[in-house]
Specification:
The protein is mostly beta strands and 128 residues long. It has no helices and 11 strands. It is 0% helix and 48% strand. Strands 2, 4, 5, 6, 9, 10 and 11 form a 7-stranded mixed sheet that branches. A 4-stranded antiparallel sheet has the order 1-3-8-7, with no helix packed on it. It starts with a strand and ends with a strand.
């Protein structure tokens, strides 16, 4: 069955770095892109960034631009989120999701309702 499994979360001090991974398996159709979303304590889930699986083109929400970077290993079917200069407000459960609805050479859309498969999430806690 289709599975997305995140890993790499943990506790880090402000200013530190973490790298999250999202391993995909069980897809029998094309995955056109993938995205990272997060849900902080008491907040709604929000868009972090996305990547086109074919071109590697990325897009980010403003609050993480210049600090976070998304990449993918097509052969390993794994997406990564490199998070640098972490802030306490980055504390959240981070989810990866797969975008399969249509091909896009640019980064997939930031709307979570357009993503059909989700991982279970991984906790990132940034202490001040």
């Amino acid at each position: 069955q289709v599975q997305l499994v995140e890993s790499g979360g943990g506790l880090v001090q402000a200013g530190g770095s973490l790298r999250l991974s999202c391993a995909a398996s069980g897809f029998t159709f094309s995955t056109y892109g993938m995205g990272w979303f997060r849900q902080g304590p008491g907040k709604e889930r929000e868009f972090v960034g996305t990547i086109s699986w074919s071109t590697g083109i990325t897009a980010y929400t403003n609050s993480v631009k210049g600090r976070f970077s998304i990449s993918r290993d097509v052969r390993q079917k794994t997406m990564y989120l490199q998070m640098n200069s972490l802030k306490p407000e980055d504390t959240a459960v981070y989810y990866c999701a797969a975008f399969i609805r249509y091909y896009t050479a640019t980064a997939p859309p930031p709307r979570e309702e357009e993503y059909d498969y989700w991982g279970q999430g991984t906790q990132v806690t940034v202490s001040s």
